[in-house]
Every structure is written in C-alpha cells, then in structure tokens.
Design a protein that fits this description.
Chain lengths: 211, 158
Amino acid sequence: MATAEIVRDSSRAVPLYSDAIQGSIQDYVGVHAGSWQSHAPVFYIPEKEPGASEPIWGTLIYGAARARRGFETIVAPKAGYQTSKTFPWDRLNLELMRIASLERNWDGEGAEPVPQHATTTAAVLLFLAKAAKDAMEQSTMAQCTFPIVLPAVDGGVTLKWAQGNKELKCIVRSDNVEVVRWSSMNRYESEGFWEIPVARVAEHFEWLLQQ
Amino acid sequence: MATSTVIAKGGPVPAEESIYRALNPKHFEGSLPGDNHFVMKQNHPPGDGVSTGIASLISVSELRSIEVIKQLYGDAFAVAELVVSEVLAPVITLGISVIQQDAAEWCEFSGAHAVITGYQVLTGNAGKKRIHDFQRHLVKLARRRYYPAGSDAPTSSE
C-alpha cells in the first residue's frame, strides 16, 4: 500500500522487493497488519546506462555516507558515542533514499519533494537515536522500537518513535528539526514543541528512553 | 444514502453527524491511516481545510464513486469515519469547526462536502504544537473506524 513509483520508465530500472531488504520501514516496525505484498516492488533503483551518470543516487549515497562519517568523526567522539555494526542502517538508509527520490507531487495531491539535505539530517538524527539507545542500554537495558520514517507532504522527513507509553515525533526540515513529544499514549496534549538544530534532539531521545 | 438531515449551506455540521475522509493510498503508515491524511498548515488560506463527506448525505460507496477522487486514489480507496463531536471535543474552544462547504467537483454530491477548518488562527510555535496535537487526535479517530480499500465493512486498529 505504501509502495512508491519513483522511476517513470521501469524498463530501465531494477525492482527492489520488500523481502529482498527485509521489508521497508513500514514492515519491521510492527505497525502494518500483514497486507504487504512481498512481490510488490518497494521501489526501483535506476539502472545506470553505459556512460551515464546517476546524479541523484550518487548524491544520496554520498550524502548518507557523509552523514555517517560526520557523526562518527564529529558528533560521536564529543559525546562519547560509538556506532554499532548491528544498527539497521541499511534498511533505514534505503527508506531515506526512497524518500529522497520522491518527485514533486509524489502523492498526486501536490506534495513537495524532500530536500536531500533533509534526508542527510534525518540520517544524523537516526544515529543520535541509536547512540542514545546504546548509552541507555548500558545502564538500564532500555528497549527502543525502530522509528517510523515517512516523507512529509510539505517537504521534509517525519520520524516517529513509541517507547513504553511515550511518543516522540520529529519532522526534519533541512538543518532544523521540529520536535513534539507526548508523555502518554492516551493524553491529548503534547508536552511541548521545539524547533531546534539536529544535535539538540539528543536530549529528547534521552527523555524518550528514560523509564 | 443514510437518513437525511438538515445542514445549512456553509454552516457547521451537527455534532452528532459523522464525516468520511477519503484516504490517499500513498499516505498510509504501514496499513494504517497516518499523519499525511490530515495535513493542516498555518498558512492554508482561511476556509480551506481537511476535505470530508457528510455521512448522512453520502455513503462510502458514493464517496468512492466521485470521479475526481477516483482519479487520484483509484477505484476502491480506503475511507475513515469520524464523529464530529469527537473530532471537535478537544478543540472546540480554539475556533476549529466542521463546516459544510459545497464542492462543485463532487458533482451531484456537492452539498455533501465539508471541511475541518479554523486551525489557521493558531499561530506561532504554540499554534504548531496545537495543530500537531489535533492531527494526532484525528489519526487516532481514523484508526478507530475505517473502511479498508475495497471493503464495505469498517475495521479498527484497536
């Protein structure tokens, strides 16, 4: 249901199936009720023609790698974090790549494309979340669900976590992130709204993981 | 079509009414209604809002027959059903309302169209917070009762 048609000319594209990548984000966060068709392509990777460049995918891959390198060399040492080889980076990254490749009007109702910088920032955000989880686990054995990752129709990336009775929602727009959090699933009103640089979202992950 | 009701042109939809929201298949979160089904922005023009059908004036199958929606969502799109009183319960004091609003593109069902609107008056970061709260509320209501694609039987994620 949430599949996306990214490449208009699929005759020159390689279909990527959900079972080939262990599901998209929607598949493994446990929110979907089994209607996923395993043989429906998750999305298509453009096939490179001889001599042709792949500006979008090249930039995306470069951007993701740069985000990870930036986290490992800049953010992580300062914060005392280490990235884990078991982090499901590939699956999350694939979802971010799918989101970043969406074209204008991807939903048929005038949705904006997602700026590549927003997906790069979202990648950094995911590393921060993982780092916070790792730090917490060392002392409290906290468990944390994987986020739901979605494109925002007005251009951006939405990431949502549910942990125990808490909910955290982040909407990444370029460098800044809008953060909303709820202390209870049943409570209507959120605790607050913040519009902050990505590095400051770490404190909200810590809030999410506190028991 | 369900029992008839008297709803003033351009007036508020009665609290006891239900409204249907056609669900774009590209906006699901897994198999469930999601945030993108209820997008509300502070800069939307006044009077614009979340488009819905008034349940007493249009049925789910009639909503699915509207050409302009079929062209966007396909023949058998999913539909959420929300009770107006539940929609407005947490926001009634904020100026948010459900208003009948003729939609010419709905042809014979033009008068059955309504919008959830009024959120445009919520400004600044405090307004954004309230809109996020309201959006989450609408998603919860939609998940409580919706007709999956191709189905005439309502279901719930609860």
